[in-house]
């Protein structure tokens, strides 16, 4: 018995609720999503067992011959191009500055992560108030205010969402960078200083390479967060408006899958989105990860 | 370091704090304004224009108390499962030797990078349609039940405890559950607070999942009922932004208060260990 289960088989018993949870909520649904995407699947009354024939790539073809779906992937591309680099640069700059500060450190740290811990639904309300046609931002800008206004302008809606998410999540990434900065050996800064490197040189020669594992993590998490975008286009731009200019793939999955009853097409969108995230994550890992070895 | 650089750093940090905090200040001001004032002057509270009218208005449309209760049940259920089952698996991963331990830990790490919202369709089909758990608290809780980041934090803290303590207690004949409860748990209380804080913000702030699974307004968490209010009924009110912001204040206040009170348990090192594994 011990030979099969290890010295303390109780460990398996202790872990079994978690393992069951992962099976039910993650493992099985992932497999199920793939299965749904290759079959003609629709919502049926409880108890009914309709035929769900295998349809090959039909759902994928249906999804990607829909211009709105293609546009939503383009939108998330715009989102990532703005959000991810901005997040990395701002989080690292603020974390570096915060790391050196002595006074008001707690106050600053807490104020940076307050948006992160607050519900997006609540914070979106303020952004709606700030950025609507008659809002504070436009009344400050006066004649410089964009027309049509921010959230109903098809050029600006997606960038505003990208800025909003950058602002909201930044505090979490600052915490990650702060943790990483504690692991950069002080001696490296000292020797860089002796070589006559200024603060800016030190930042690029010591800090940036020193926090590379954290940078990889920030890139990965912000990419996954961006791919999951839903609440913001749903509420901030009233369902991905104007005219789908800020619709995200997850919003399309909701609209096509749940509202219009095509879970099979929605699953196909989900699978393509996951594959896209995996490709981006692979590229990020290739270029940012494991260079020190 | 030169004086100039110190000043520059102070300015950047202070500017950051303003950018992060101003929307929250503006949320409260907007929620208290009887008549909305989107001009610059409106950003400074004017006593003659302040009242709790907006809170009364929003409460007439969405039952704030019932929303808070549902958010509380949703969050409480997740916290309970995470603490009980998360501690068990965290303890098993750190303190016990059993076959499958490494694979289980790899799974905990893997689960963290699975984009959860992409599971919305299969989970909706399974939980709402197949298991018939639509419009139930259980259906809401199930996908969030055990927070994997909390599991990693528990494991990390258990690993730091001295092994000799446990060997000695085992020789005295203490069972593992007893060890976990009366030896390990009191020693990892800070981890418990950190894990609870981190787990709390998930269900309390979650919108998409409870939105998909609850159609019955009396069961909706506050985030969902407020979002429905924003997207549908707000336009029909005199001061839509005031009412929305009042609802937003009610939704945001518990979390903000919690994170200010317990801020010292939410520092980078705990999280760093949590995310790095």
UniProtKB/TrEMBL annotation, chain A:
Major location (coarse): membrane
Compartment(s): Cell membrane
Protein topology in the membrane: Multi-pass membrane protein
CDD domains, alphabetized: TM_PBP2
Occurrences of domain ABC transmembrane type-1 (ranges): 73-284
Membrane-crossing residue ranges in chain numbering: 12-35, 76-98, 110-130, 156-181, 202-224, 265-283
Keywords annotated in UniProt: Cell membrane, Membrane, Transmembrane, Transmembrane helix, Transport
Key word Transmembrane present: yes
One Pfam assignment: BPD_transp_1
Protein family membership: Belongs to the binding-protein-dependent transport system permease family.
Protein name, as recorded: Sugar ABC transporter permease
Automatic annotation (TrEMBL), chain B:
CDD domains recorded: TM_PBP2
Subcellular localization, as worded in the UniProt entry: Cell membrane
Record keyword 4Fe-4S present: no
Source organism phylogeny: Bacteria, Bacillati, Actinomycetota, Actinomycetes, Micrococcales
Main location: membrane
Transmembrane segments: 7-28, 73-93, 105-127, 139-158, 179-201, 241-262
Species per Swiss-Prot/TrEMBL record: Herbiconiux gentiana
UniProt KW Transmembrane keyword: yes
Protein name: Carbohydrate ABC transporter permease
Domain of life according to the entry: Bacteria
PANTHER family: ABC TRANSPORTER PERMEASE PROTEIN MG189-RELATED, ABC TRANSPORTER PERMEASE PROTEIN MG189-RELATED-RELATED
Domain ABC transmembrane type-1, first and last residues per copy: 68-262
First and last residue of the signal peptide: none
Annotated family: Belongs to the binding-protein-dependent transport system permease family.
Recorded topology in the membrane: Multi-pass membrane protein
Keywords, ordered alphabetically: Cell membrane, Membrane, Transmembrane, Transmembrane helix, Transport
Matches recorded under Gene3D superfamilies: MetI-like (1.10.3720.10)
Pfam family, one: BPD_transp_1
């Amino acid at each position: 018995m011990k030979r099969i289960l290890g010295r303390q088989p109780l460990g398996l018993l202790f872990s079994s609720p978690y393992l069951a949870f992962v099976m039910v909520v993650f493992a099985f649904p992932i497999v199920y999503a793939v299965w749904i995407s290759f079959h003609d699947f629709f919502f049926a009354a409880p108890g009914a067992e309709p035929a769900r024939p295998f349809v090959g790539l039909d759902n994928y073809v249906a999804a990607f011959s829909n211009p709105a779906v293609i546009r939503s992937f383009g939108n998330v591309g715009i989102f990532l191009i703005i959000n991810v680099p901005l997040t990395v640069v701002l989080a690292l700059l603020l974390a570096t500055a915060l790391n050196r500060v002595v006074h008001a450190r707690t106050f600053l740290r807490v104020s940076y992560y307050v948006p992160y811990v607050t519900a997006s639904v609540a914070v979106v309300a303020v952004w709606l108030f700030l950025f609507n046609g008659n809002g504070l931002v436009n009344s400050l800008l006066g004649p410089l205010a964009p027309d049509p206004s921010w959230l109903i302008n098809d050029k600006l809606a997606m960038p505003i969402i990208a800025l909003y998410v950058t602002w909201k999540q930044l505090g979490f990434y600052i915490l990650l960078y702060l943790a990483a900065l504690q692991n950069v050996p002080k001696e490296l800064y000292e020797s860089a200083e002796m070589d006559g490197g200024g603060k800016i040189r030190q930042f690029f020669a010591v800090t940036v390479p020193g926090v590379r594992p954290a940078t990889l993590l920030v890139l990965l998490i912000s990419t996954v967060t961006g791919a999951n975008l839903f609440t913001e286009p749903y509420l901030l731009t009233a369902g991905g408006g104007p005219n789908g200019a800020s619709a995200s793939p997850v919003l399309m999955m909701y609209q096509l899958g749940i509202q219009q009853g095509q879970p099979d097409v929605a699953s196909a969108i989900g699978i393509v989105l996951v594959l896209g995230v995996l490709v981006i994550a692979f590229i990020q890992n290739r270029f940012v990860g494991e260079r020190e070895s | 370091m030169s004086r100039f650089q110190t000043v520059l750093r102070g300015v950047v940090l202070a500017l950051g704090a303003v950018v992060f905090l101003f929307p929250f200040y503006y949320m409260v001001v907007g929620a208290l304004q009887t008549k909305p004032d989107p001009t610059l002057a409106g950003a400074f509270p004017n006593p003659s224009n302040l009242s709790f009218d907006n809170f009364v208005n929003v409460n007439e449309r969405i039952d704030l108390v019932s929303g808070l209760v549902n958010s509380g049940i949703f969050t409480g259920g997740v916290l309970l499962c995470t603490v009980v089952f998360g501690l068990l698996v965290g303890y098993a991963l750190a303190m016990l030797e059993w076959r499958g331990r490494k694979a289980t830990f790899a799974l905990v790490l893997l689960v963290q990078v699975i984009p959860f919202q992409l599971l919305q369709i299969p989970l909706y089909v399974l939980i709402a349609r197949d298991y018939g758990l639509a419009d139930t608290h259980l259906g809401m809780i199930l996908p969030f039940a055990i927070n994997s980041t909390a599991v990693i934090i528990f494991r990390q803290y258990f690993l730091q405890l001295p092994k000799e303590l446990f060997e000695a207690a085992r020789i005295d004949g203490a069972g593992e559950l007893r060890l976990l409860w009366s030896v390990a748990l009191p020693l990892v209380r800070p981890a418990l607070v950190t894990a609870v804080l981190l787990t709390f913000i998930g269900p309390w702030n979650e919108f998409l999942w409870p939105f998909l699974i609850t159609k019955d307004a009396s069961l909706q968490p506050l985030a969902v009922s407020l979002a429905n209010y924003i997207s549908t009924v707000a336009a029909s009110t005199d001061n839509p932004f005031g009412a929305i912001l009042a609802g937003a204040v009610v939704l945001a206040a518990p979390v903000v208060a919690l994170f200010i009170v317990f801020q010292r348990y939410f520092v980078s090192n705990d999280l760093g260990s949590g995310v790095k594994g």
